[in-house]
Amino acid sequence: MAQHPPISTPRTASRPDGPRQLWAVSAVSSAVFLLSWTLCWVKAYAINDDLPNTCGDIRRQVFPTEVACASFDGTTTGATPGWLVVLFFASLVVTALSATMALAVTAAVRGR
After folding, report:
1. What are the phi and psi torsion angles at 59 (to 5°)?
2. List of residues 6+ apart from 78 with CB closer than 8 A
3. What integer best gives the mean pLDDT of the chain?
4. What is the DSSP letter of 22?
5. Which residues 6+ apart lie within 8 Å of 81 measured at CB?
6. Within 10 A of 83 (CB to CB), how many other CB atoms are there?
């Protein structure tokens, strides 16, 4: 019996799906950023709403939002907790970096 050469299929490189995990990280971190920004705003303008009426030396901050009363002895009342400020800025940085990397990877994958 005669042997036939094996049928070869052409090798096609499959294109990667793209940076789905990076997009997911970007979406989650932006949700955390918006939640922490909302918590800062609520603390400043809903909880500490009457603070300017009772305090002589009021301290206002725009980004992240904060309204606090500074006393003569150096203590502050109504300040945003430190962990919330860290969460705010960390999630902002992670959102920016992961979105930038996801865009770069998407452009590289589409360029192939």
Report:
1. -115, 120
2. 43, 47, 48, 51, 67, 68, 69
3. 81
4. H
5. none
6. 9
Nearest CA to 38 among 109, 98, 87, 5?
87
Question: Which distant-in-sequence residues (6+ apart) come within 8 Å of 69 by Cβ?
Answer: 51, 54, 55, 57, 58, 59, 76, 77, 78
Question: Across residues 20-38, what is the average pLDDT?
Answer: 93
Closest CA to 55 of 79, 80, 77, 40: 77
The tens digit of pLDDT for each residue in 31-41 reads 999 999 999 88
Q: Give SS3 for 19.
A: coil
- Per the structure block, which two tokens stand in for 55? 């305090």
Contact 76/68 with Cβ under 8 angstroms?
A: yes
State both tokens at 112. Answer: 């192939």
